[in-house]
C-alpha cells in the first residue's frame, strides 16, 4: 500500500506545485495580456494621431461635429428654461437629426437632410390621416394602428429594395420610424398635432445647426474630392505603366508571385497598386458623384449643373486604359517569359512608348488639376510616333518573335542568313540573335532551358506566396527537348504580346483625350497661358518639363 | 397716330388670343404631365411586382419587417395598460431598434445588434459617470454637460474615420446618440438610472423581437448568398470566355464600340457583362463575407468557423482569370484586327481551348454548388492538352503571324516556298496563305487594305457610340502603302496576342484549382459519388455531360 501513498503524496506535492505555478502562469499571462493591450492602445493612438496629421480635415470634421452637438444641447437647455412644454422629451429629435445628418461632406449632409425632411413630412401627413381614422374605430383603435403599422412597414421595406430607390434608403427608414413613433407614442397623449409640430420644429433646429456649422466652418466638398481623385488616378496609371515597362525591360521576374495579387487583394507592389487603386476607385467615384451633384456652386466650380458626371466619364476612359496596364503587368506575372536578349533588342522603342504614354497621362492629369484646356499641339503626337517606331521595329525584327524551326513550309536556309549577316553589319548583335534563334546550336537550347529552369524548380512554398509552378508547358508525355522548343517559341511570342498590348494601350489613349475634351468644354476650362508662340520644339520641351 | 392705335388693338387681340391659347396650352401640358405621371407610376408598380416575383425573399423580408414592427407596437400597448410608468415616452427605443437592426440577412442583423448593444452600454456607463460629475459642479452643471457632449462627439466622430473602425461606424453613432440623449433629456428628470434601465429593457425587447422574427420565419443567410454568388461568377466567366473566343473566330467586329464599354459602365453586351459582373462583384462579396462570419452554423454549413474567407479567395483567383478574359475582349474591341483567313487557320485549336477552359470553369462552379471534391482525374488535363496543341500549331505556322517582307536579315526566297508548297500538299490552303503573306502580290495588299478600310471609313457618329476612328496606324507622313504594310504586320501580331492571352488564361486556371482545393479541404466538401470506377474515357464523357 506504500506505493500508492507515496504516489498520492507525490501527486499532492505535484498538485500544490502546479497550483502555485498555475497562479504564477496566470499572473504572468494576465500581465502579458495587459502589456500587449497597452502596447496596442499606444499603437492605435499613434496611428490615430498620424491620421489627423496626414489629413487635418478629419480633425476639423470631428471638431465640427462636437460643436454642432454642443450647440443643439445648449439650445435645448435654453428653451427648457423658458417654456412650459417638456421639450426634453422631444429633444431626441434634434440630437438624432444632427447625428444622422452630419456627414463628412456638404453634399452628403444635403442628401441626408433631404431624406430626413421628406421622410418626416410624408410620415407626418400619413400618420395624421390614419390617426383620425383610428379615432373613428372606437374600441378597435389599437387594432387599426397595429394593422396600419404593418402595412406601412411592409410597403416601405419592400420599396426600398427597388434598385433605383437605393439613394433614398435612409428616407424610408426615417419615414417608418416617424410613422411608428407618432402612432404608438401619440396614441397615448392624443396630441398628434402638437407632437408633429414639435418634432418638425426640433428637426428643423437640428438641420439648421448642421447646415450652418458644416457650411460656415471649413466646408469639405465632395466635388473637390472627386476632382482630386480623378487627378490622382491619372498619376497612378502613369506610374504603373512606367513601372511595368521598366521592370519588363530589366527582366526582373517575380520569383514568387504574392498570393494577394493572384487573388486580387490589396498588395504593396507599386505597379499592381497603381492600376488596382484606379480600378477599385470606381465605387468611391460614384459615391462622391452622388454627393457632388447636390452641392451648390463653390470655389473653382462656379457653375450650376457643373459637369461632375464628365469627371467620372474621364476616369472611366482612364480605367479602360488601366485594364491594358493590367494586361501588361500580366505579362510580367506570367510564367512564360521572353528571354532577356530579345527584350533588349526592342528596349529603346518599348521604353519610349512607355515614357511617352506616361507623359500624356501625367499631362492630362495636370491639365485637369489646373482646369486648363489642352494646348494648340496634338498631345498624342509623340506617343503615336513612338508607337509607330515600335511597330516598325517589330515588323523588321519579327523573326525574333517566332521560331522558324517548326515551320511546316520549311526552315529558313542557314547559309543565306549567314550571308546576310556578313553583308549587313549595322546591327550585328541583333543579327546574331536572329541567327541564333533560327539555328540549332546547343548553346542556344541550353540558354533557353536555363531561362526556364529557375521558375520550374522553385517549389518550396512559403506563407503568402504561391509556388511558381511549372504548369506550362503542360507535361503531355513529350520529351524535355520538345518542351523546351515549345517554351522557346511561346516565350518569344510573349514579347510580341507585350508590345501588342502596349500599342493597344496607346490606341486607347485617344478615348481618354476625347473624354477630357468633352469635360474641358462642358466645365469651361480656361485656355492655357502661353508666353511664347507655340513652336514644335518648344512645346516638346515644355511637355518634357511637365513630366519632371 | 392711327397706326399706333391700330397696332395696339391688334396687339390686344393677339394678347387675348395668346392668353386663351396659353390657358389651353397650360391645361394640355398639365394633362400630359398627369398622364405621364400615371404611366410612370404604373410602370413602377409593374416593375416592383416583377421584382417580387423574381426574388420572393424580398417580399418575405418586407412581411417580416411589418410583422416585427406590429409585434413591438402591440407589446408597448400591452405594457402601457398594465404599468404606471409612461413607457410610450421611451417606446421610441424599441421601435428605433427594430428599424435599425432589421436587416435583410441574419448576419447583418447580428452585426447591427452587436453595434447597438455595445454602443448603448458604453454610452450608458460613460453617461452615468459624467452625470455624477456634473451634479458635483452645482450651478455649472449644464456647462459641464455641454463640454462633455463636445468631447464625446469629437472623439467618436474622429475615431470612426479610422480605417479599421468602418464596420463599427453604426456603433459610434449609437454611442453618441445615447450619450447625448441621456445627458440632455436625463438632466431634466434627474432619473438617469431609471432612464438607462428602461432604455436598455426596451432595446432588449426590440432586439429580441427582431432576432426571433428574422431567424424563425424563413431566415435569409448571407453565407448562402455568398456561396451562390461565387457559383454564379464561375458561370459568368465561362460564358464570357466562350463568347469572346467564338466571336473572335466568327470575326464579328464591333463596328461601333458602345461608349459605355469605353468608359467601363454597365452595358448589355453579353461578353462584357460576364466578366464585368465578376470584377464588380468584389464589393458585394466583401459585404456578404462581413455578414456571413457572424452567422451561426446552419443548413449545409454545419461547422463553426466556416471558411467563408476561402469562398472569397476562390472568387479572387477567378477574378485574376477574368482579367485575362477582359484582355481577350480587348482584342475584339481593338482597331487592329487580324484578317479572317488567318484566324481560320487556328480556328479549331482556339475554339477547343476556349471550350475546354469554359468546361473547367463550369465544372468547378458545379462542384462548389454541390459542395463536392474534385474527382480522381486531373481536371485541367484536357485544357492543358488543348493549349499545348494550340501552341504547337502556332509554332508550326508562326510565319502567318509575322511579315517577313520587312526583315532586315533579308526576305525568304520565293522559289523555295513555292517548291515546298508543291511538295507538301496536305494543307494547301494554309500554305497558300503563308505564301501570300510572304509574297508581294498586288492581290494580297488589296485584300489587306480592304480589310482595313471599313473601320477607317466609319466616321458617322451617333449618340452613345464612339466613332471607330482610324487612330492607328498614326499618320506620320508616310505613304498609304507603307501604312498598309505596317497595319498588316500589326494585325497578324494581334492574332498572336489573342492566342498568347488565351494560353495565359489557361495557366492561371491552376491558381483557381489550387484555391478550390484549399476551400474543399477546409470546408470538408464530400467526395463525389462515382458509380463506376473512373476510367479515362468515362471520366471525359462525364465531364462532357456536365457542360451540357
Automatic annotation (TrEMBL), chains A, B:
InterPro entries: ALMT (IPR020966). The keyword Ubl conjugation does not apply. GO terms for biological process: malate transport; monoatomic ion transmembrane transport. Belongs to the aromatic acid exporter (TC 2.A.85) family. This is Aluminum-activated malate transporter 9. The chain crosses the membrane at residues 59-78, 90-111, 117-136, 143-159, 171-188, 200-221. One of its GO terms (cellular component) is membrane. Keywords: Ion channel, Ion transport, Membrane, Transmembrane, Transmembrane helix, Transport. It is a multi-pass membrane protein. The keyword Cytoplasm does not apply. It is found in: Membrane.
Amino acid at each position: 500500500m506504500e506505493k500508492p501513498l507515496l504516489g498520492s503524496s507525490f501527486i499532492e506535492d505535484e498538485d500544490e506545485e502546479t497550483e502555485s505555478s498555475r497562479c504564477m502562469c496566470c499572473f504572468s499571462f494576465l500581465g502579458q495580456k495587459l502589456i500587449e493591450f497597452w502596447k496596442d492602445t499606444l499603437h492605435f493612438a499613434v496611428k490615430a494621431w498620424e491620421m489627423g496629421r496626414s489629413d487635418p480635415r478629419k480633425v476639423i470634421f470631428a471638431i465640427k461635429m462636437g460643436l454642432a452637438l454642443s450647440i443643439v444641447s445648449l439650445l435645448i437647455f435654453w428653451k427648457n428654461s423658458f417654456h412650459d412644454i417638456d421639450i426634453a422629451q422631444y429633444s431626441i429629435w434634434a440630437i438624432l437629426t444632427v447625428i444622422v445628418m452630419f456627414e463628412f461632406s456638404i453634399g452628403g449632409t444635403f442628401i441626408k437632410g433631404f431624406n430626413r425632411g421628406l421622410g418626416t413630412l410624408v410620415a407626418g401627413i400619413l400618420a395624421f390621416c390614419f390617426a383620425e381614422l383610428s379615432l373613428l374605430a372606437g374600441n378597435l383603435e389599437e387594432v387599426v394602428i397595429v394593422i396600419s403599422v404593418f402595412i406601412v412597414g411592409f410597403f416601405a421595406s419592400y420599396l426600398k429594395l427597388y434598385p433605383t430607390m437605393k439613394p433614398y434608403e435612409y428616407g424610408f427608414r426615417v419615414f417608418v420610424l416617424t410613422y411608428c413613433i407618432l402612432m404608438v407614442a401619440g396614441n397615448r397623449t392624443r396630441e398628434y398635432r402638437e407632437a408633429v409640430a414639435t418634432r418638425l420644429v426640433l428637426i428643423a433646429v437640428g438641420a439648421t445647426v448642421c447646415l450652418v456649422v458644416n457650411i460656415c466652418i471649413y466646408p469639405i466638398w465632395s466635388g473637390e474630392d472627386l476632382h482630386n481623385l480623378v487627378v490622382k488616378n491619372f498619376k497612378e496609371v502613369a506610374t504603373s505603366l512606367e513601372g511595368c515597362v521598366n521592370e519588363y525591360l530589366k527582366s526582373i521576374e517575380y520569383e514568387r508571385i504574392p498570393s494577394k495579387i493572384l487573388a486580387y487583394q490589396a498588395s504593396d507592389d507599386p505597379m499592381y497598386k497603381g492600376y488596382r487603386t484606379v480600378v477599385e476607385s470606381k465605387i468611391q467615384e460614384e459615391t462622391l458623384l452622388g454627393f457632388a451633384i447636390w452641392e451648390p456652386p463653390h470655389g473653382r466650380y462656379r457653375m450650376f449643373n457643373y459637369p461632375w458626371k464628365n469627371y467620372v466619364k474621364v476616369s472611366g476612359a482612364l480605367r479602360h486604359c488601366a485594364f491594358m496596364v493590367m494586361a501588361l503587368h500580366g505579362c510580367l506575372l506570367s510564367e512564360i517569359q521572353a528571354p532577356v536578349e530579345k527584350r533588349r533588342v526592342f528596349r529603346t522603342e518599348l521604353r519610349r512608348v512607355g515614357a511617352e504614354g506616361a507623359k500624356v497621362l501625367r499631362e492630362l492629369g495636370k491639365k485637369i488639376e489646373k482646369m486648363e484646356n489642352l494646348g494648340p499641339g496634338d498631345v498624342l503626337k509623340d506617343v503615336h510616333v513612338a508607337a509607330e517606331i515600335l511597330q516598325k521595329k517589330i515588323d523588321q525584327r519579327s523573326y525574333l518573335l517566332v521560331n522558324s524551326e517548326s515551320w511546316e513550309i520549311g526552315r529558313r536556309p542557314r547559309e543565306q542568313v549567314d550571308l546576310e549577316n556578313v553583308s549587313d553589319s549595322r546591327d550585328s548583335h541583333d543579327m546574331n540573335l536572329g541567327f541564333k534563334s533560327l539555328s540549332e546550336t546547343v548553346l542556344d537550347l541550353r540558354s533557353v532551358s536555363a531561362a526556364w529552369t529557375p521558375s520550374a524548380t522553385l517549389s518550396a512554398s512559403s506563407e503568402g506566396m504561391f509556388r511558381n509552378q511549372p504548369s506550362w508547358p503542360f507535361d503531355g508525355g513529350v520529351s524535355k527537348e520538345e518542351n523546351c522548343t515549345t517554351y522557346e517559341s511561346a516565350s518569344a511570342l510573349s514579347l510580341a504580346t507585350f508590345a501588342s498590348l502596349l500599342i493597344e494601350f496607346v490606341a486607347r489613349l485617344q478615348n481618354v483625350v476625347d473624354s477630357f475634351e468633352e469635360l474641358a468644354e462642358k466645365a469651361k476650362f480656361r485656355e492655357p497661358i502661353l508666353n511664347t508662340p507655340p513652336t514644335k520644339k518648344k512645346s516638346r520641351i515644355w511637355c518634357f518639363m511637365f513630366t519632371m
